[in-house]
Amino acid sequence: MMPARPPMPPASRIGLAEVVAFGAGDMGFNIIWGLMLSYLAYFYTEICLLPVQMVGFMLMAARAASLVTDPAVGIWIDRRPAGRQALPLLRGGIVPFIVLVALAFLPLPHGWPVVVRGIGATIGYMALCVAYGVVNTAYGAMTSLISAGHDMRLRLATSRMVGATLGSLLVSIATLPMVDWLGHGDRQVGFALFMVVVACVVGGLLWLPSRFCHERVTTDSGDMTVRARVAGLLANRGWRRLTGAMLLTMLGSTFLFGALVYDVRYVLHDSDHMAGWLLGTISLMVLVGCGLSLPLAARWGTAPVMRGGTLAAGGVLLVAYVLPARVEVIGVALALFGLCVGICNPVCFTLLAHCMDGDGFSGTHTVGLAWALNSTASKMAFDIGGSLLAGVLAASGLVGGARMQPLHAQAGIHAGFLLVPAVLYLLAGGVVLRYFARQNPVEAVNSTASPPPT
């Protein structure tokens, strides 16, 4: 039998300030995530001049610690008393996290042996991954803990995705121009100074949800064993399918964003600053998609909207791959891709929060471990995708730091940029989410859920 849940803390009004503050938190996280997704491999290969094979190994090795720390953080959250489950961890982890943000992008001198520079970069990135996982798991659990109502969760998820998109937009537009300006042409110095500024901005953004957001929803009583929690979570069909779909789409996004700068430079033969503008285009269209997500979900349902948007995103990338490689074609395709992703994101996190409630999914109400494992899967997809992309680039003959690349290297870059993400998105929408969309679980949960505080 399921253990009885403890009484909920006294409800308080969820106002606009709390919704906005919650979105500001994901803006901070996505400034860091966007930098890692779009510029980390480029930073290590083109700025630090590390071999691409070493970078691939480093991205995989750095995730090992998170495989232990993230689930431990989730279990810790589940066992905390009601009203104080995730917020203390979020508040306490901000300062260590922003310090490691500044240190991780600190280039080591080129005069040092490449092995020493590789080990130093791996240690710095591993520490950043652990700190990110701790703070981000606590923040993610807040999606389930602030409110139990479907409508309010959709508002929170939309605010979160708007903040995330603004963070990605800021990164895409400002990174390379600011690096060049701060470093006066020396990108090693520029990256070091830029990341100090980024750390300060991110720290301020993460302080907002830690100060203005409140926990109102409780999970189980905390006396379940770890084995029982894991077994209950793995029995949760909705959580499994959503996590699998998110893993595939994150893997695809890692290929797309990681190869974008290479594709612009070596396939489209344009400035790497153009990559920033293309990333900005994606972010702007994601914002538009977030605005469309709520009315589309109200009309067709959250799960069908997510599946349709995922399939459309994969289809757009596949069409772009078979068309001639031109800046205009890529720009239009990425704009449509961003629109589809923006439509999917809010409904995805709303679905995920409801799946963690356990209602109708044969699962256990355990938000800490569920968010932790979901986050771990996404980050594993990022590192696996980064490693696989590095392998594709190495196998295709990419020469780091070269002004031109051979045709076979260009073909590998372009396939990693468009074809691989297209296939992964189509698999996520056409296979993993097929049964999930037919089941449309949130509407069933919503029909019995009490209305959120207003």
From TrEMBL:
Biological processes, Gene Ontology terms: carbohydrate transport
GO CC entries: plasma membrane
Entry keywords, A to Z: Membrane, Transmembrane, Transmembrane helix
Domain of life the protein comes from: Bacteria
Entries under Gene3D superfamilies matching the protein: MFS general substrate transporter like domains (1.20.1250.20)
Record has Hydrolase as a keyword: no
Record bears the keyword Membrane: yes
Transmembrane stretches, start-end: 20-42, 89-108, 114-141, 162-183, 189-208, 242-262, 274-298, 305-323, 329-352, 380-399, 411-433
GO molecular function, one term: symporter activity
Stretches assigned to coiled coil: none
Protein family (similarity comment): Belongs to the sodium:galactoside symporter (TC 2.A.2) family.
Protein name as annotated: Inner membrane symporter YicJ
Organism, as annotated: Komagataeibacter europaeus (Gluconacetobacter europaeus)
